[in-house]
Structure formats: C-alpha cells, structure tokens
Task: structure prediction
Amino acid sequence: MTYFTKDKPYNTLNEYNKAKYNSKVAKISLNGGFTCPNKDGKVGIGGCIYCSSSGSGDFAGDIKLSFHDQYYQIKNIIDKKWKNTKYMPYLQANSNTYKSVDELRKIYNEIIDIDKENTVGIAIATRADCIDLEIVELLKEINQKKEVIIELGLQTSNENTAKLINRCMTNECFKNAVYMLSKANIFIVVHIINGLPYETYDDMLNTIKFVNSLPINAIKFHSLLVLKNTKLNELYEKEKFHILTMDEYVKITSMQICNLRDDIIIERLQADSSIEDLVEPKWSRKKLLVMDKIDMYLRDNKLYQGIYYKKEQ
Ligand code: SF4
Result:
C-alpha cells in the first residue's frame, strides 16, 4: 500500500495518518530531561558535532513543567488551529531510552496516561546504542497499550563521515538495534542528514541504499544545519566546507526519494532550527519553499518514490 497523492508522489505522513487513524496527527514534543551517552562519556564526549545544547530538541517542551503541563500547553494551542486532531507525544531531545528500565517504564506510562482518548501513540527519539533486549521488552510492553514509535539517528552510512561528525556508533550497531526493534513489531523511523561535510552525491544515495536494506518503516530527511556554539560551526569557520545550495538539496533529496523503497513513509523533508542559532544554510528557514520545490522537481520530471529502486531489482 502506498500513500502518494497527485501533488506529492511519495508516501506522506499526512496521508498515512489519515488512512491509519482517520485523522490528522500532531506531534507534541516533551522534554524528559534525558542526556546522551555520546555526551556524558559512556561512548563519547562532546556529542555529535552538529548537536545543539538542547540535544537536537530545539522545540522540545519546558523541562521545568510536568509532562502533563508540557503536553497541554502545546495541545491547547494546536486545538485552536485544527479541529479533530489526534496527538502523538514525542520525547525528542537527547537519547530517550537512556535511563534504567524502571525509570523508563514510569516515564512512558505517565506519558501515555495523560490523554488516553486523544493520543495515538508515543514517539521516542534515541540512539541505536541505547537499545538492548531489556529495553525492547519494555517497549513491547508499552506497545501493547499504545503504539510505540522509535526514532533512530543514522545520519549517514559512510563510516568515515560518521567519525568526522563524532557519531560514536557503528553501522553494525545501528543494524542490530533495527533488527531487535523490528522483531518486536516496533515502528522504526530513521533520521538522515544531507550535506554533511565532504559527503558526495553518491555517499548520500548510499545512505538510502543502506536504509532500504533494513526493516525501516519511515524516514526523516534533514539538511545539515550549522548552528552557533557547536563544534560543526568551529569546523565550518576553519575549513569552509561546502554547504549545499537549496537547489542542490532539492535535487539530492528528490533523487533519494526516487531510490527509496516505496513502502517507507516520508515523515519530514527538511530540518528546523531557531533563527537566532542558525549560521548556514540561510535558505533552510524557507521550509515550505524547499518542500514545494521537491514536489515540483518530482512532478516536472515524472518521478516518484521508488522509481529507481524498482529498476534496480
Ligand atoms: S546522539 Fe543526538 S543528542 Fe546525542 S550528541 Fe548526537 S545529536 Fe546530540
């Protein structure tokens, strides 16, 4: 089953949600005060070089508030904009499976109990090295009450780039986590970044081939964002590596969509950041324009998700 439309020749999250829940689904970012093993020294120090002080969760809720208050603060705003919306609480900042299983059980249960009637599941962003069999057992337990969606950062399949960005995780570790989660019937979303320093067009297509080879359910595409006060910004100031232009990003992402398996849902086509923190690329603020251009590129060239993937079979 595919979720393409005439205007968007790929599986959009919106169409998928409409078919599955008969409703629009809005994510509500919550902040659980997690940290990350790539920052606290367990696997690395300093974190991925592009990571902001908020742990790549710039729109997460206010940690000083309870989950209940964080949730309703955002839900009340969305309710005024969209009627009949369902919600998905989203633990976004840092690595949200990086606590003891007992603490995690308490947190996840508290979140899924907040608004049982109007939520369709819980989305949890984490790292592959924060997934083990014990965690998977817990996720299975929660998944029986509300759907669990796990979002894993891959960013690239090029291990040299992974070293450069201090990802501190191997592709093998990523694969193992994906297979453990998939076996437990957990919905898996992978995050990738286009425009990482010195990556070529082929590197970015190879990342899609790697994703295609795994039982992944959905993908989020991001353009590399150089943010103030990050190691990436220091590297950029020193080496002035190439930043993708908007047209390059549109073309590369479109070609990745053409090479992507046609059962994978596309959850996002562009990254967000606060305007104050953004150094480059300035065009990334024009999120709607970038999305429109990708749609237009695909339509004008009579392309669609999976067109080249199928030809390779
Ligand atoms: S894994 Fe995520 S939270 Fe941890 S350092 Fe990298 S980007 Fe930041």
